[in-house]
Design goal:
By secondary structure, the chain is mainly α. It has six helices and two strands. It has a single domain, classed as Serine Threonine Protein Phosphatase 5, Tetratricopeptide repeat. Helix content is 43%, strand content 3%. It has a two-stranded antiparallel sheet with strand order 1-2. The radius of gyration is 14 Å and the shape is globular. The relative contact order is 0.14.
Length: 115
């Protein structure tokens, strides 16, 4: 299946941009489009789900997971950071609980932490 991708001026998907902007209605509209890739990575290596976790928007996190975003996504461009790592680094206990409930691997290690 070929995915449809629309990008902003910084080569981020419009889904990613909607998350960064906190535009929940726009995100829901974009996710209804056929063949949209909810797991598309931005040039930074982050997905829209990474962005939602980073911004602490649990509602958007749930919307993205319900749309098929992978809760196992790690960012090879950022030392293999997973969604759970981002939640811990953000210090948001509610987000941390949401990531654990979503099934994130609590044993995953970031590359620079491995000896």
């Amino acid at each position: 299946m070929q995915y449809q991708s629309s990008k902003d001026g910084e080569r981020k998907s419009l889904i990613f941009t909607a998350v960064l902007s906190g535009k929940e209605i726009m995100l829901e509209h974009l996710l209804k489009k056929p063949r949209v890739d909810v797991n598309e990575k931005a040039p930074s290596g982050n997905t829209a789900l990474h962005a939602a976790v980073n911004t602490g928007n649990i509602s958007m996190v749930q919307t993205l997971i319900n749309a098929g975003a992978k809760d196992t996504a790690c960012n090879a461009e950022r030392e293999g950071a997973t969604l759970l790592h981002l939640a811990v680094m953000g210090g948001n206990s509610e987000m941390l609980s949401a990531m654990l409930e979503a099934g994130c691997d609590k044993n995953a290690k970031m590359e620079y932490l491995q000896l």
